[in-house]
């Protein structure tokens, strides 16, 4: 990279002026505030407001990140679905510690979760799988996620083959497809502020209660 490009990137910055986050704005339960922010992200028509960065760690301690869509949440957990042969699922089978991050930068906001991931039951997975569009169900069969393929045509050919196979009946749930529920123990809310004086609040579970601390930006 040229020195000019490095300088140009280093000089990219803007002020965060959308407003702050004060203690009076917080809710007793973090998921109440998350639900409010998610609703506002949807109302602002952000692209993929439910998209979250999922971070896992392999057996060597190497972290990996990827974008996954949130499909459900409640007062204690968040849910996503994936191929159980995927890299993330293999990581979680060995180490179920996980981090989830919502990068709502258009609203000058971020939300980060820490927790433990547990496999969903077959009943929960089947119910969601059959709610998906039919082509998405077939695509789950066509892709051995994270495996090496020599060309896209192979994947497309497999999809068309399976579409023909399942054309007259229900698409069955693949044995290698499932979901995870992340039981949360920490949530951080970040709101951009002027002069880089951002507002950060950390919720941490202590027994049956949540401790709330303001963090320096």
Automatic annotation (TrEMBL):
Print the keywords alphabetically: Flavoprotein, FMN, Oxidoreductase, Pyridoxine biosynthesis
Q: Which Gene3D superfamilies match?
A: Electron Transport, Fmn-binding Protein, Chain A
Domain of life where this protein originates: Bacteria
- Domain Pyridoxine 5'-phosphate oxidase dimerisation C-terminal per the UniProt entry, residue ranges: 177-217
Pathway per its UniProt entry is: Cofactor metabolism; pyridoxal 5'-phosphate salvage; pyridoxal 5'-phosphate from pyridoxine 5'-phosphate: step 1/1; Cofactor metabolism; pyridoxal 5'-phosphate salvage; pyridoxal 5'-phosphate from pyridoxamine 5'-phosphate: step 1/1
Task: Give the UniProt record's GO annotations in the biological process aspect.
Answer: pyridoxine biosynthetic process
Residue runs in coiled coils:
none
Record text on cofactor binding: Binds 1 FMN per subunit.
* Entry EC number(s): 1.4.3.5
Per UniProt, residues of the Pyridoxamine 5'-phosphate oxidase N-terminal domain are 38-164
Q: Which reaction does it catalyse?
A: pyridoxamine 5'-phosphate + O2 + H2O = pyridoxal 5'-phosphate + H2O2 + NH4(+); pyridoxine 5'-phosphate + O2 = pyridoxal 5'-phosphate + H2O2
Locate the residues binding substrate.
13-16, 71, 128, 132, 136, 196-198
- Asked if the record carries the keyword Oxidoreductase, the reply is yes
What is a single molecular function from GO for this protein? Answer: FMN binding
PROSITE patterns the record matches: PYRIDOX_OXIDASE
| Binding, FMN | 66-71, 81-82, 87-88, 110, 145-146, 190, 200
Name the cofactor(s) required for activity, per the record.
Answer: FMN
Q: Subunit details for this protein? A: Homodimer.
What's this chain's function? Catalyzes the oxidation of either pyridoxine 5'-phosphate (PNP) or pyridoxamine 5'-phosphate (PMP) into pyridoxal 5'-phosphate (PLP).
| Family assignment from sequence similarity | Belongs to the pyridoxamine 5'-phosphate oxidase family.
Q: Which NCBIfam families match?
A: pdxH (TIGR00558), PRK05679.1 (NF004231)
What's the protein called, per UniProt? Pyridoxine/pyridoxamine 5'-phosphate oxidase
Write down the species: Xenorhabdus szentirmaii DSM 16338
Q: What is the lineage of its organism?
A: Bacteria, Pseudomonadati, Pseudomonadota, Gammaproteobacteria, Enterobacterales
Which gene is transcribed and translated to give this protein?
A: pdxH
């Amino acid at each position: 990279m040229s020195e000019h490009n490095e300088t140009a990137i280093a000089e990219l910055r803007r002020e965060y002026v959308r407003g702050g986050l004060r203690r009076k704005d917080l809710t007793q339960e973090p998921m109440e505030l998350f639900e409010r922010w998610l609703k506002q992200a949807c109302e602002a028509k952000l692209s993929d407001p439910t998209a979250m960065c999922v971070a896992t760690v392999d057996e060597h301690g190497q972290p990996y990140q990827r974008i996954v869509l949130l499909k459900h949440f409640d007062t204690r957990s968040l849910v996503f679905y994936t191929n159980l042969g995927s890299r993330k699922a293999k990581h979680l089978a060995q180490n179920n510690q996980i981090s989830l991050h919502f990068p709502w930068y258009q609203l000058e906001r971020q939300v980060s979760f820490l927790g433990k991931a547990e496999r969903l039951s077959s009943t929960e997975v089947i119910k969601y799988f059959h709610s998906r569009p039919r082509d998405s169900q077939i695509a789950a069969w066509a892709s051995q996620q994270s495996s090496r393929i020599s060309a896209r045509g192979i994947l497309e050919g497999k999809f068309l083959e399976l579409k023909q196979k399942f054309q007259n009946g229900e698409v069955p749930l693949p044995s290698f497809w499932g979901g995870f529920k992340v039981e949360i123990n920490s949530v951080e809310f970040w709101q951009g502020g002027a002069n880089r004086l951002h507002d950060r609040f950390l919720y941490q579970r202590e027994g049956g209660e949540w401790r709330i601390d303001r963090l320096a930006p």
